[in-house]
């Protein structure tokens, strides 16, 4: 499973498969859900976590992360591009790698390993 390069603004589009390139994060800031919503399937945003871009607004890209669909990480945490048009926190994934990592997350495992 080899990720493609860091996301560039020229590839920004809804539905694009991406991976989280930051450090593994857990806790209420990542997984807090709206009152009354179901608990997230996953308890953290892993380095390498798969997701799909849901809102491709250049200065606040939202990603729906697998297992964290109703969590803060998916509906409130956005990514901005740098001066060169790169989103350093997001890497592009192939459909195959996305599905492999998605399956691992839903099985309660880290996305890579």
Automatic annotation (TrEMBL):
<protein>
    <submittedName>
        <fullName>Uncharacterized protein</fullName>
    </submittedName>
</protein>
């Amino acid at each position: 499973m080899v990720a493609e390069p860091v996301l560039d603004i020229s590839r920004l589009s809804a539905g694009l498969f991406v991976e989280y390139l930051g450090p593994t994060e857990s806790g209420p800031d990542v997984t807090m859900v709206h009152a009354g919503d179901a608990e997230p399937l996953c308890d953290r945003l892993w380095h390498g976590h798969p997701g799909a871009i849901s809102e491709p607004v250049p200065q606040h890209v939202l990603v729906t992360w697998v297992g964290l669909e109703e969590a803060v990480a998916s509906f409130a945490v956005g990514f901005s591009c740098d001066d060169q048009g790169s989103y350093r926190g997001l890497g592009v994934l192939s459909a195959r790698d996305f599905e492999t990592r998605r399956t691992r997350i839903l099985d309660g495992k880290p996305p890579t390993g």
